[in-house]
Specification:
It is a single chain. By secondary structure, this protein is of the alpha+beta class. The protein is about 30% helix and about 35% strand. The protein contains three helices and seven strands, in the order E-H-E-E-H-E-E-H-E-E. A hairpin with a 4-residue loop joins strand 4 and strand 5. The relative contact order is 0.25.
């Protein structure tokens, strides 16, 4: 069995994404017909078209960790996938840097592909995670989603 970290909030740089992805491939050989990865990255333009210099992310870790695990538990039960993990990072990020990783293991392709949008929509709205865009012009804005 692979050594895959629990879902949760991780400070930027504290979790090696390449190692997590490598371990995900070893989870339970033969049991999974599909492994889906979703990597969310920082965009260089805001919804208003402003140039983003950095994105700052903070979280109420205790509650956010609980919610991320709940989302995965619900996903496994609702879509009958084998496993789910969500890793959300905190700190300062440049455009293009990863800030979230979701992984779904499923025996069946259709179950996994149905589960992924569900996971994405829930993790974007439910955990106690806040994001602040820092713009090239020196202004900032806390994001609602």
């Amino acid at each position: 069995m692979a050594n895959i970290p629990e879902s949760g909030i991780y400070e930027k740089g504290k979790l090696d994404l390449i190692n997590v992805l490598s371990e995900a491939l070893k989870r339970d050989p033969g049991k999974d017909g599909i492994i889906l990865y979703y990597v969310g990255t920082v965009k260089d333009l805001s919804k208003d078209g402003k140039k983003v210099k950095q994105l700052y992310i903070e979280a109420y870790e205790e509650l956010a960790n609980k919610k991320l695990k709940e989302i995965c538990y619900d996903t496994v039960n609702k879509f009958l996938v084998n496993e789910c993990r969500i890793y959300h990072f905190t700190g300062y990020f440049l455009p293009g840097e990863p800030l979230v990783l979701a992984i779904i293991w499923s025996r069946d392709r259709s179950q996994g592909l149905s589960a992924l949008p569900y996971v994405i929509e829930r993790y974007k709205k439910e955990p106690t995670i806040w994001k602040k865009e820092i713009y090239e012009d020196g202004t900032t804005k806390w994001l609602e989603e």
